[in-house]
Amino acid sequence: MVSQTEKRKVDHIKLCVEKDVAFKEKTTLLECVELDYKTLPEIALDDVNLETEFLGKTFSTPLMVSAITGGSQISKKINQDIAKACQELGIGMGLGSMRAMIESPSIADTYYVRDVAPDIFLAGNIGAAQLREYSPEIINKALESVGADALAIHLNAAQEVVQPEGDTDFSNVLSKIAEYVDEINVPVYAKEVGHGISFDVAKALKDVGVKAVDVQGAGGTSWTMVDSIRHKSGFGKTFREWGIPTAVSVVETKNALVGERQILASGGIRNGIEGIKSIILGADMVGVAMPILKAQQKSYKSLQNYLHNFTSEMAITSFLLGCKNIEELKKQEYVVLGKLKEWLNQ
Ligand SMILES: Cc1cc2nc3c(=O)[nH]c(=O)nc-3n(C[C@H](O)[C@H](O)[C@H](O)COP(=O)(O)O)c2cc1C
Questions:
Q1: Cα of 13 to ligand 1 centre, how many Å?
Q2: Would the pLDDT of 1 be above 70?
Q3: Residue 23 confidence (pLDDT) above 70
Q4: Which atom in ligand 1 lies closest to the alpha carbon of residue 287?
Q5: Could you identify the atom of ligand 1 that is nearest to the CA of residue 97?
Q6: C-beta separation of 39 from 258 below 8 A
Q7: What does the pLDDT read at residue 301?
Q8: Alpha carbons 325 and 312: distance in angstroms, whole number
Q9: Residue ranges for the binding site for FMN?
Q10: For residue 170, what pLDDT is reported?
Q11: Atom of ligand 1 minimally distant from the CA of 156
Q12: What architecture is domain 4-345?
């Protein structure tokens, strides 16, 4: 029998691929960041090496595929393809919520990718609202069975309140996260799903000991929009534009974490230039979800091309700034214009 969770997983994939579920008016505001083109870079493109460490694992380029799926029969091939492409490029990957495999162990294999991706950084995933249902032992067991290097806890209050069968009780979530940070056998980090993380929340997460914050800001896929389509009445569309733009969220999170934790920039990041802008704003890693799913659905070749182009664009952008590595990028000056400037000045 197909569980409600498994059915929702399939709905989400179909809606993301077939419908327009992106933010319509709000953007990431990364377009307000202007970079300082070094017309004389004084380096060769081949000198650029963006190798980086994230949560104890080495990446060839600071890029990972954000959590997408697991838990339905169509998820298996998606995860296998993504993992294989990430292994080829030396980048990371997040699995979708592991709730489905905890509820129905018979579909656990849809999350297994270590056969095709033995070396990549692999993050497991669970919803903050589900922490009260599953003990740390259960989650440790699930993480171990997939060979995860970290656990991403998703904070998706905006999505859950719009979801027809959503969990709307977010009380005491922070203290639960604190408990899991201590009890989970791999590093724990927090992520939103596309509506952003503010200064105060990033600071609270740091204070309870999460090892990184993945902002998943507004401007890309709107999860309130995805779940509003699942209501026959269209309830929830009002919240389509809800959230903090990715560029704002990266800067606020950087100010809150003051260099003591790592930051992932994500939510609406669509190319390597935007990826490098995020690194310059303060991120250590860049995450992308929707375009990866869409490319994978076309063909494995399209998926490879998308990821290859993205990493090449990051290297080229770095070259055009005269930066050989991440350290040099972090020292780059930049100009902030328009709406982003207004937001950050308040
Ligand atoms: C089909 C699909 C399923 C997703 N499922 C999950 C999930 O299970 N857990 C999670 O934390 N995020 C999930 N996400 C959210 C992404 O990780 C990401 O936060 C969000 O889509 C914003 O990034 P984007 O604008 O690059 O798509 C999913 C995204 C997609 C496209």
A1: 10
A2: no
A3: yes
A4: 26
A5: 8
A6: no
A7: 98
A8: 14
A9: 66-69, 97, 125, 191, 221, 268-270, 289-290
A10: 95
A11: 11
A12: Alpha-Beta Barrel (3.20)
